[in-house]
Write a structure and sequence with these properties.
13 strands, 359 residues, alpha/beta, six-stranded mixed β-sheet, five-stranded mixed β-sheet, globular, 15 helices
Length: 359
Amino acid sequence: MRRILGIALAILLVGGVIAAIAIGGKKPEGTATKTVRGVIGSEKSEFFRDPDVVKALADKGYTVKTETSGSWAMDQLALKEFDFAFPSSSEPATEIEAAAGVKGAQNSKPFFSPLVVIARANAAKVLADHGLAKTTGKNTGTLLLGPFLKAAAEDRTWQQLQGGTSAYPELAGTVFVKTTDPTTSNSGALFLATASNVANNATVVSDDAGIERTAPLMKKLISVQGALEQSTDDPFRSFISGSGEPLILAYESQVASLLQQKQNPGDMVVLYPDTTVNSPHTFVPISEKARELGSLLATDPKLRSLVVRHGFRPTEGVAEFTTATAPHTAYLNPGLTGIRQVGAPTVKVLMALAARAKG
């Protein structure tokens, strides 16, 4: 009898262990099943760190780990170590594909963001008073690139614009927009694309003659800045903290995200350049694991709402962006009213402009 009871007890114990393994091994609903690693532009860091984004991606079967790089420097990385690259515009994507050996990859462009120049209130007033900008309210307006570039070509100073007075002593030295490094960072490169278009009689620079014609001015725009940042995140955070230059190039998404998070923008004035090259953030799948992630970011309703919450404009999502940012039109231009949108030069031309600008 004891032997029979012992065998029965052993069977029950084994059965319990098997049941525990079965229960413990069952993945709860919503647990991510696939870990992918990507390299992204710094302006998307907060999006991928957002706990709501992490959960929404996990619900779709993904754990996403990221590190940042300048968009134009991504093709220099060991891309085989990543499952995807996510530069801030379509121009670097071709180089990334070639470097990763995935030419013809099924890229997607889930969202975009125009460039803006954020200005201190006093700086915006001086620019507006001298015809270099036009304010349409206390905290928003337009940077008039033609007059602004003319002032840059003439090496105009803040003191000259103020007529030699010292009404705003914090404004001193040559007038310039603080950008990122145009040879590695997307925002810096697209600023040159925009400025060169205006300097080239409202035409995209497409050949050596156009490069020669516009390169001296592009060099002035960059050389006057001194040390250049590698990403848009650092100068933006410096500006918000109260330091940094009075005019800083940023993405509209950075401003829109800040406002929607109800953070204090200080005395910020958002100036939209009257000519702009939009920045469609382009998802490049490198491994099969990440192939569908880009389309998820573009089509999943929950993820689209989070994209908007972080200030980006979903592709074909004007209404979503307008609704979400309606309380912040004192700073933003949801319809991009009065803004001329132009194409960018080819990668070869743009990199030649960037090299000349730094050289």
